[in-house]
Design goal:
Elements lengths: L1 H9 L2 E19 L2 E15 L4 E6 L3 H4 L3 H11 L11 H11 L4 H19 L19 E3 L4 H13 L4 E5 L4 H14 L4 E5 L6 H13 L4 E5 L7 H11 L3 E3 L6 H9 L5 E2 L3 H4 L1 H5 L1
Helix pairs in contact: 3-5, 4-5, 6-7, 7-8, 8-9
Length: about 290
């Protein structure tokens, strides 16, 4: 019994530190609803009683999650005392408490959660995935994201990633439907055996999304997914686009919580949900 008490005490959170960091972005990250040339993030460090430290990060993106760095920093600073004196072994309970206190600030919660989980798994000397019991190591094809940019830059980026083996391109679209179609068509005729994801980031109207899908189909492009084409609250729009285009739809900005995911499922508004810990927090994403 004493050994167990010592183990639990060694995981007690003693200190939480938070500081801002600016990370220059190699290529401007431009989506339909905003742009970033610098990642304005927060780093967080949790120190346990046994001296183990864990690092977490908050990467707020107002257009996706609703937080900017200033609000994220203020909320994370206010939440930090919630962790002090608690055992990192109770990370689920702590995460639930953070959610109760700041449900609308997932990036702030995510930074604290990831720092706590990193410290805890390091203290146990196990990889982070082992906290959840297993790992799936099957091969999967992933995509590479191409921001909204002019034709020359689009070609430069896609050709560079194509040379590295990528064949699935997530094209940011939604600002100018005709220009979006031209960009995809140019890439389609330049690079063989590729496919596209059209990620509108809420930028399309329903009508423009239908025009976009039809335009890609017209030049023979393989559009395998439409991601968040319309504003986050327009679940009926997502539902309609699924049926009218025949292209699977993914909900991204529409899902910031488990309740959001349930609503999307109830309405059959999407075929997939884009789960990001930065827009839900870690514990909420796992659910």
């Amino acid at each position: 019994m004493p050994a167990r008490t010592t183990s639990v005490n060694s995981h007690t959170i003693q200190r939480v530190e938070i500081w801002p960091i600016d990370v220059p972005i190699t290529d401007p990250f431009v989506v339909a609803t905003g742009a970033r040339v610098t990642a304005q993030n927060l780093f967080m460090r949790v120190t346990l009683r046994d001296g183990t430290q864990g690092i977490g990060e908050a990467a707020p993106f107002p257009e996706v999650g609703g937080e900017d760095r200033a609000s994220c920093l203020a909320v994370a600073t206010g939440l930090a005392p919630t962790l002090i004196g608690q055992s990192a072994a109770e990370h689920q309970v702590i995460a639930d408490k953070l959610y109760e206190e700041a449900p609308l600030y997932p990036a702030a919660r995510c930074g604290l959660e990831t720092a706590m989980l990193d410290a805890y798994s390091r203290s146990l000397r196990i990889p982070l995935w082992q906290l959840w019991g297993s790992v799936d190591v099957r091969d999967r094809e992933t995509n590479i994201t191409i921001p909204i940019c002019d034709l020359d830059k689009t070609l430069e980026l896609t050709q560079s990633w194509y040379a590295k083996g990528f064949r699935l391109f997530k094209m940011k679209v939604g600002k100018d439907v005709e220009e979006d179609i031209r960009r995809l068509e140019t890439v389609h005729y330049t690079l063989p055996n590729i496919a596209f994801i059209g990620d509108g980031n809420q930028g399309f109207s329903r009508e423009d999304c239908l025009l976009f899908a039809a335009g890609v189909k017209k030049f023979g492009g393989r559009l395998v997914l439409l991601e968040q084409p319309v504003i986050r609250d327009d679940l009926e729009g997502l539902q309609a686009i699924r049926h009218l285009t025949g292209v699977p739809v993914a909900a991204d900005e529409s899902v910031r919580s488990l309740d959001d995911a349930r609503q999307v499922a109830r309405m059959h508004a999407a075929d997939y949900i884009n789960i990001k810990i930065m827009k839900t927090g870690v514990a909420e994403a796992l659910r």
